[in-house]
Design brief:
The protein is mainly beta and 201 residues long. It contains one helix and 15 strands.
Length: 201
């Protein structure tokens, strides 16, 4: 797994005049030469996040010191599933978070030994895409809750509750780059946290 010193989830910095945008990662403008990498081509990245698989690279962890920080604030396991809360914050007041988050929206998983053992129940796709919105993440945290409620074959949430130290909660989402084609696949960024026993339910 790679770590990026300045890797962040979906962020767009907007100049005061509103005429110029750039990613909070300091990405170069479209057409600029991309750095070489030993990771598999992004278009071959596995996005199904299926039971029994690992999260395919390129995958990077959001870390302290990122201009925008993606963290899990809680991960509580109970017999019915795992309740996860995440937060996105930024140090620069002008930072805006573009919503809805894509191409892979924040997706909660439970891993054991690096492999997916529980997932969220897939949601129904919207009839029409939601209009793009800007959230002032530089001025207030963006916080959401997710629920991992579908255990993979061979795993039960009772197992997870009995031995939470053997598992880890992870939320992954696409890193966003301004100016990229809509069909371009971007790397994934993750935030992870140890599980804690929650209330009954």
């Amino acid at each position: 797994m790679k770590k990026a010193l300045f890797l962040v989830p979906l962020l767009v910095l907007t100049a005061a005049c509103g005429s110029t945008t750039t990613t909070a990662t300091g990405s170069k403008s479209p057409g600029a030469a991309e750095p070489t990498t030993t990771s598999p081509p992004i278009e071959r990245q596995q996005r199904t996040l299926a039971c029994g698989t690992t999260i395919a690279p390129p995958l990077m962890e959001s870390v302290d010191g990122d201009p925008v920080r993606f963290t899990l604030t809680s991960a509580a396991v109970r017999e019915s599933g795992v309740a996860v809360s995440y937060r996105i914050t930024a140090t620069a007041p002008e930072t805006m978070l573009s919503l809805p988050i894509g191409e892979v929206p924040p997706t909660a998983l439970v891993l054991k030994d690096g492999r997916i053992v529980a997932t969220e129940t897939p949601g129904k796709p919207s009839v029409e895409p939601a209009p793009a919105l800007g959230f002032p993440v530089g001025k207030q945290p963006y916080e959401k809750d997710l629920t991992v409620d579908r255990a993979c074959e061979g795993t039960t949430f009772k197992d997870v509750l009995a031995h939470p130290d053997r598992y880890r909660a992870v939320v992954v989402m696409s890193v966003q780059n301004a100016g990229m084609p809509k069909d371009a696949k971007n790397p994934l960024v993750q935030a992870s946290r140890a599980l804690q026993p929650g209330t009954a339910g």
